[in-house]
Structure formats: C-alpha cells, structure tokens
C-alpha cells in the first residue's frame, strides 16, 4: 500500500543530483566505475587504476613468480596487468628451431588469468635476445620473412584472447632517428614492421598492437622518426594501435616535453602506454633522492594519464631485489616502487598519487 502523507512523499523523493545521475546512468550516458572487491582495494595501485579504467602493470620474472610468496602477494594485490620480463622473448620461446618452450610464458598467463590481471605480450620483433640458430643462420630474406611470420602466428595465436596488447616491434630505431641495424631491418627493410603488425592482427584481431621503444619519451629525433613512421603506417591502413614509451629514467630525468610528446601520438588516434617504467638512482640512495624519485614516479604517470588514450603504466619489475638496473648500470639501482625487502618506498606513494585523481 502506498503512503500518501506529505511526510512520506517527502522522504521518498529522490534528491535532485542523485536523480540526474540515475537518469544519465539509465540512458547509458555515464557509467559507474567497477566496484572495488573490498574497501582496502581502493587504496592499492590496482584499486586506483581500476577506478580509472586503466592498467597498472609490472614486468614479472619467472624465478620469483615460482618461488617467492612476498613477490606474488605484492604483484596480485597491487597490479592489474603483467608483462613477461623475458619469458616471451624469442630465445626463451624457441631456443632450438622448431622446438618451443612455453613453460614460463604459460605460467605467467595462467597466473594472470587466475588473479584477474591482463597480460601485455613482450615482444615479437626485436634485434636482441634472438636464439643463436636465428642470429647466426645466415638466412635469405625470403626465409626470414617466413620465419618471422611463423613465429608471430604461432606465438600470438597461442595466446589469442588472453593478451590485451602486444609489443609487436621493440627498439627499431637508433637515437638519431635512423632505423637500427638488425637481422630484420638489414634483410627485409622497414617493410618488416608493417608485415609483423598485419600478421599479429590476423592471429589475434582483438589485441592492441604496439611499437615500443626507449628514449622516445621526449620530443627528440628518435620520437620524431617514430611519429613519422606511425603516421605513415596508419595512412596505409596497417593495424598499429599504440605506442609504448618504455620510460627507463634516471633520477630527475623525466623529460619536460613528455606529456606534449605523448599527446601528439594520442592525437593520431593511438593508445599510449608507459611500458617499462623505472627510475634509477646512484647508490646508495639518500632520503632526498628517494623523495625525488617519488616525485618522478608521480610526474611520469601523470604525464601518461593526463593524455587522452593513455591505456596505463607498467613498471619494469616491482621490487629492487629483482631489477635489471644494477646489472646494466654499474653503481645505480633502487629503481622500483618496492625495496629489496618488499617494503613500499616513497616511489610507491608517488605512483599511487599519480594514479589517483583525488590525491
Ligand atoms: O636465461 C639465461 C640463463 O639461462 C643464464 O644462466 C643466465 C646467465 O647470465 O642468463 C639468463 O639470461 C638472462 C635473461 O635476462 C634472463 O634472466 C640474460 O643473461 C640477461 O641479459 C637478460 O636480461 C634481460 C634484458 O632485457 C636482455 O636484453 C633483463 O632481464 C630484462 O629486464 C631486459 O628487459 C629489456 C626489455 O625487454 C626491453 N627494453 C629494455 C629492458 C631492459 O634492458
């Protein structure tokens, strides 16, 4: 039975702002963000990223994924996306010709599936980490074309529907904007890039296909060359969907032109993502340096998220314990959001604030 007294009518009336939101929701004009699974999730990196509809990722190494509980605890609590740090590279997948080793790659994709994480595939066409049978095979152009097509069809096909984005082409440019010498470039020319994107698209039409590189975060000769290539590929109808800005920075080195540079790619209709973010510090890191690193993480992530079509940010690892940095840059390290004991560093807060529009 309806209550019709003025008192009850007053209590049942929907407040105007809520009514407006309800009407917009009903009309499909606005959508509510997905509900966080629990209250604490709202304060994790993935809680903020989910609320914004973007990815927060980490590169994952197979060793600690298999053996360190703290590693998977942090990974699964904080990140809604993963990238194989090495497991999907050619030397890992096909060390001997025709004999594939999917173990580590499958392990990561299965882990991601069971923890509601997306997977970025990394990487299909690269000058490095090629198996020796391929590097030293002295193949003809026709043979290389077939080998590359088979590799892409097999690998992308295997994970069809389970990888939301692929770094199809990695590090194809020199610093001056010329094309880098590689097995592919030297024998097949720049045409191999369009071919690779087309083959990948055929193998998984839903995956977003990226060209990925480092030192392209600023407006410079290298990013200009990539921009010109991207425009050309799009004009030719080649399935290129995104550009990955690796973002391996040195402390204080987030470029001033980064946001404007990302925006010009976004303005082409491409997704932009930070795909390998880390910020290295001369060791030992001081408190002031860790604070600067926090600012740098915030600035870098805001530079992406402030641009239309930013799909997300991936850090190249999660803990300083397993970072590639000290092994490559002697005297540098401490580049990631977690320290070697899995404690959150100031960088974690910087990244969190960069993801959280209300921070
Ligand atoms: O798998 C072998 C193992 O069998 C062997 O015993 C061991 C001995 O050194 O080496 C192992 O391979 C190493 C591999 O990582 C897996 O751990 C290689 O030596 C080592 O060079 C390789 O380093 C990787 C590097 O790419 C190779 O270029 C790093 O972990 C990885 O973080 C790094 O990632 C790249 C991105 O793919 C592209 N952008 C730059 C980024 C940083 O260099």
TrEMBL record:
<keyword id="KW-0858">Xylan degradation</keyword>
<keyword id="KW-0119">Carbohydrate metabolism</keyword>
<comment type="similarity">
    <text>Belongs to the glycosyl hydrolase 10 (cellulase F) family.</text>
</comment>
<dbReference type="InterPro" id="IPR017853">
    <property type="entry name" value="GH"/>
</dbReference>
<dbReference type="InterPro" id="IPR044846">
    <property type="entry name" value="GH10"/>
</dbReference>
<dbReference type="InterPro" id="IPR001000">
    <property type="entry name" value="GH10_dom"/>
</dbReference>
<keyword id="KW-0326">Glycosidase</keyword>
<keyword id="KW-0732">Signal</keyword>
<dbReference type="Pfam" id="PF00331">
    <property type="entry name" value="Glyco_hydro_10"/>
</dbReference>
<dbReference type="GO" id="GO:0045493">
    <property type="term" value="P:xylan catabolic process"/>
</dbReference>
<feature type="domain" description="GH10">
    <location>
        <begin position="39"/>
        <end position="354"/>
    </location>
</feature>
<keyword id="KW-0624">Polysaccharide degradation</keyword>
<keyword id="KW-0378">Hydrolase</keyword>
<dbReference type="GO" id="GO:0031176">
    <property type="term" value="F:endo-1,4-beta-xylanase activity"/>
</dbReference>
<protein>
    <recommendedName>
        <fullName>Beta-xylanase</fullName>
        <ecNumber>3.2.1.8</ecNumber>
    </recommendedName>
</protein>
